[in-house]
Specification:
28% strand; 5-stranded mixed beta sheet; alpha+beta; 4 helices; globular
C-alpha cells in the first residue's frame, strides 16, 4: 500500500516550554503526552491523530537552523485549515504573536507563512475545493502572488470547506 499522508513531525527546539506555549496558544495544539523539560507531543485541534507534532528540547546553546540557507534540510511543514474564516483567525493569531512572515496566493491554495520561537518556518493553508478548480482559475495565473485574504473570502465564502476531496453544493 502506498504512503497515505504525513502522520506527524518532530522538531528539535531550544526551550520546550516556550515552544509548547507558542504552538498551544497561537495554533491551538493540545498536549497529549509531556515529559517535563524534555519533550512534548501535541495534537492539532481538529485532528484525530495520536499526535501531530513532537517537540524535543536541545537547550539554549543550540545553533540556528541553516536549512535552505547554508545546508540541506527541511524548509517548512504545512498544516491545513478547513475554511478561510479559520485561516483569517490563524492570521490574526500569528500577527499578535509577531510570527507571520508572509502570505501567498498559490492559485489552488491560500497560504500563510510564519516562524516559531526558534525561527523554524511553517505554513498554514486552505485548499480551494477540487470542484472549483477550473482551467479559467489556473490558466495563466502566477504560481505565487500576494494573498488578499478578504478578496478570497468574498470569492469563496468564509465558511466554504476546502480540500481536495471536498465537493461543493451546486
Amino acid at each position: 500500500m502506498p504512503v497515505q499522508r504525513l502522520n506527524h513531525a518532530v522538531l528539535y527546539v531550544r526551550d520546550v516550554d516556550r515552544s509548547l506555549a507558542f504552538y498551544r496558544d497561537v495554533l491551538g495544539f493540545r498536549v497529549t503526552t509531556e515529559i517535563p523539560g524534555t519533550a512534548v507531543f501535541l495534537q492539532a485541534e481538529g485532528s484525530t491523530n495520536d499526535h501531530d507534532l513532537g517537540l524535543f528540547q536541545v537547550g539554549a546553546a543550540a545553533g540556528a537552523s541553516g536549512a535552505g540557507r547554508r545546508t540541506v534540510g527541511l524548509y517548512h511543514l504545512a498544516w491545513e485549515v478547513d475554511t478561510l474564516a479559520e485561516l483569517a483567525r490563524v492570521r490574526d493569531a500569528l500577527l499578535r504573536a509577531g510570527a507571520l512572515i508572509g502570505a501567498s496566493d498559490h492559485v489552488t491554495t491560500k497560504a500563510l507563512y510564519a516562524q516559531d520561537p526558534d525561527g523554524l518556518e511553517f505554513e498554514v493553508s486552505w485548499l480551494v475545493p477540487a470542484a472549483l478548480i477550473t482551467p479559467e482559475l489556473t490558466d495563466g495565473a502566477p504560481m505565487t502572488a500576494p494573498l488578499d485574504l478578504d478578496r478570497e473570502i468574498a470569492r469563496y465564502g468564509a465558511d466554504t470547506r476546502g480540500g481536495v476531496g471536498v465537493s461543493v453544493p451546486a
